[in-house]
Amino acid sequence: MRESPIVITGTDAARLRALLESRTRTERDLRHLERLDQELERAQVVDAADVPRGVVTLYSRVGVLDLDNGERLDITLVLPAEADLSQGRVSVLAPLGTALVGYREGDTIEWDMPGGRRRLRVEEVGPAERL
């Protein structure tokens, strides 16, 4: 977890809290969902119009660089029911999606993923789009 709070819209915060409350947490996903819960508790909640440019929100298009292997990922952050990896749509409750929400272009994130801890840098954030 970083020192400064993530920035998140009130709508996204409400959606994420509802998803977290309704989700049965398995041992596999318990850790990253608990971290998301902690991030939400200390998040700076703002109106959608007040989200600074370059902040990852639901439906943002995000370019991410894996700092350990140099791989670049281009994804859109979506709700779980809209996830489709073949289309680059990653659920906000998947470890990668959870890691990104609320962070900004240029931020480096260390997050536990299946297969171990990953270091990621948010390279680019495009405007949020409804699917």
Describe the model.
- The radius of gyration is 13 Å and the shape is globular.
- It has helices spanning 10-22, 30-41, 95-100, and strands at residues 7-9, 44-46, 61-66, 72-78, 89-91, 108-113, 116-126.
- The relative contact order is 0.21.
- It is an alpha/beta fold.
- A hairpin with a 5-residue loop joins strand 3 (61-66) and strand 4.
- It is built from 3 helices and 7 strands.
- It has one domain: Transcription elongation factor, GreA/GreB, C-terminal domain (Chitinase A, domain 3, Roll).
- The model has no long low-confidence stretch (mean pLDDT 87).
Strand-helix topology:
Elements: E1 7-9, H1 10-22, H2 30-41, E2 44-46, E3 61-66, E4 72-78, E5 89-91, H3 95-100, E6 108-113, E7 116-126
Parallel strand pairs: 1-2, 4-5
Antiparallel strand pairs: 3-4, 3-7, 6-7
CATH architecture: Roll
Task: Write the CATH homologous superfamily.
Answer: Transcription elongation factor, GreA/GreB, C-terminal domain
Radius of gyration: 13 Å
Spans of at least 5 consecutive residues whose pLDDT stays below 50 are: none
What string, H for helix and E for strand, traces the elements in order? EHHEEEEHEE
Strand fraction: 25-35%
Shape: globular
CATH class: Alpha Beta
Distance between the termini: 30 Å
Helix content: 10-25%
